[in-house]
Amino acid sequence: MDAPNKEFALAGSLEELKAKGRLVVHGSHRPILVIYDRGRVFALDNRCPHMGFPLERGSVEDGILTCHWHHARFDLESGGTFDLWADDVPICPVEVRDGEVWVKTTFGHADPAAHWHQRLADGLAHDLGLVIAKAVHGQLAADVAPGDIVRQVALFGAKNRDGWGVGLTILTALGNLLPVLPKEEAYLALFHGARRVAADCDGEAPRRERAPLGSRPDPAALKRWLQRWTNVRHREAAERTVLTAIAAGVSPPELADALLAAETERAFADTGHSLDFINKAFECLDLIGWEHAAALLPTVVGQMVAARGAEESTAWRQPVDLVALCEEAASQLPEWFAAGRGAHSTSRADGWSHHAALARDLLGDDPVAIIDALKAAIRAGAAPADLGRSLAYGAALRVARFGTANEHSDWETAHHVFTYANAVHQMLKRIGTANTDGDVTAVRAVLHGAMALYLARYLNVPPARIPGEGGEQLDNLPADAEMIRAALLDAFDRQRQVDLAARLVARHLTLGHSPQALIATLARAVLREDAGFHAYQMLEAGARQFSAWGDTEEGRHILIAVARYLAAHSPTERAALQTADVARRLMRGGELHREPGAS
Ligand code: FES
Asked: What is the pLDDT of residue 1?
């Protein structure tokens, strides 16, 4: 018999349905469960929205359908769940015509983008990983721009937690990587970012809004105030100062200068996290739009003013007082930069370019000589951002040469310096010449980073050998690009493959294969794991720093550092990947489970 409408399929006769209680309609569409209950007929997706178990195996009582795999319960009429972790089950129209039961085989929403936007809001609010995954998938399928999803999640995170956190940092790091990710990885990246923001906000008190002042002081005064309030740990005053600066239209570079100057009132605060969070908040605004500055930027202030500085640490005071060394150098920065501007204007047309040489000086074992190297670079014309780039490369070399005989937790020490240095570099690039009043207070971040790098020198004793150096041949490894990348993923599948991962990265780059494809593979390696916070940071900071150097020896060292760190932290259980996969399969309409013998 022809269907009255091609979107409808015949489920069977009403008599048959009454006799059996339920029927399942299979076909090219998703399987549909038709249920007869107390004189009414209902039709819904036969795949449990939780994990896809066939709902035909469930039971119905008092209008409630129960799936017996994990015992989620659903309202038979609406499909709405009583157990939020399971998600709602899609329903579809059903009609009884001349004693026959017909069901509409297409599921859909009038406005899919709006529907999945709301579902993402629900998933974030209740920290529901599966709902988040489906909503991200649904939005992407509805052609919502990935940046719009980042914006929705970021604004949720800023509002529903009293301060910037790990989740927003991960979201931003992954948001930065979206342009180099294939479609499937972009889905995973957005899912991980959103789920980590939701987890951060779960059970937290929401943020309390503060207001800008009625006055509009000049940027220099606001910068001084912010340093003052940070010094005395006055959070409310610091937040109102930031809000006033935003309301006054202070430019993003000037805001960055003010925040970095305030942040460096303390040395390497909170092991560098505080500064890294500030940088990420700026990068997040680049992703979601600066019109959201008042919602986002104040969220970093609480941690900034409360952070514990390295000046309280014995390691920074004995046997050499590194804090005093930094303070002495900081007092001379204006003079050094003045000399550098002179050198620049008289002898250089193409700028200072000794980044790699300075980085190697920064890896020395004499803190006074390290400060002297920075002084010489500045006086020779190095701009603040040049110093940041050298610092970040030096820190990457610490990771690239990290000796695996160290304690495993020592990786984090090397990692902290690298991500801090990357953040310093990005902030100084952003500031550029915005500090035209000659106030280079923010460059203290480089001095602090250089000392943190010095203190981590023992991690390279003895130094790990960097593959490909000294003409080392890697001919025992594959030459084909895809084979190398497959071998790299295979290495990440096994524990303690640090050296092999480094060799494969070196092999890939020295043969001239695409660095972007390699970075996408490293991203895939992270996105399939239940990665720790630091893995996301390492990946993104490495990709950023690689972009500064390109496919050079230094760029190769940076990606080797990333691969070594990731290899030391892989594999994991991959539970989040399983959630993402289930959501993807449910969204695509395929059957996840089939009863033996089912047609
Ligand atoms: S409750 Fe149905 S599959 Fe888990």
From this structure: 40
Residues 197-218: tens digit of each pLDDT? 999 999 999 999 899 999 999 9
Average pLDDT rounded to a whole number, residues 346-357: 77
Average pLDDT, rounded, for the chain:
94
Q: Model-level pTM?
A: 0.94
What is the mean predicted confidence (pLDDT) over 302-306?
A: 97
**Does the C-beta of 70 come closer than 6 Å to ligand 1?**
yes
For residue 48, give the ligand 1 atom closest to its CA.
2
Probe target for ligand 1 pocket from 47, 48, 74, 585, with the most ligand atoms within 8 Å of CB: 48
In angstroms, what is the span from residue 72 Cα to ligand 1's centroid? Answer: 6
The verdict on the CB of residue 53 being under 6 Å from ligand 1 is yes
Mean pLDDT calculated for residue range 391-403: 97
What's the 73 CA to ligand 1 centre distance in angstroms? 9
Counting other chains too, the contacts that 365-374 makes at CB distance below 8 Å and 24 or more residues apart are 365/454, 365/457, 367/320, 367/322, 367/325, 367/451, 367/454, 368/325, 370/450, 370/451, 370/454, 371/325, 371/326, 371/329, 371/447, 371/450, 374/329, 374/446, 374/447, 374/450
Query: Ligand 1 center to residue 525 CA distance, Å?
Result: 29
**Ligand 1 lined by 370 (C-beta under 6 Å):** no
- DSSP assignment, residue 9? E
Return the H-helix or E-strand segment holding 484. Answer: helix 481-492
Residue 4 has pLDDT above 70, yes or no: no
pLDDT band for position 500 (50/70/90)? Answer: very high
Q: Tell me the C-alpha to C-alpha distance, in Å, between residue 414 and each of 260, 291, 459, 469, 562.
A: 22, 36, 7, 21, 11
The whole-number pLDDT of residue 437 equals 67
Q: Would the CB of 69 count as within 6 Å of ligand 1?
A: yes
Q: Is the CB of 18 under 6 A from ligand 1?
A: no
Give the separation between CA 552 and CA 396, rounded to whole angstroms. 14
137 Cα to the center of ligand 1, angstroms: 20
Cα 74 to ligand 1 centroid, rounded to whole Å: 11
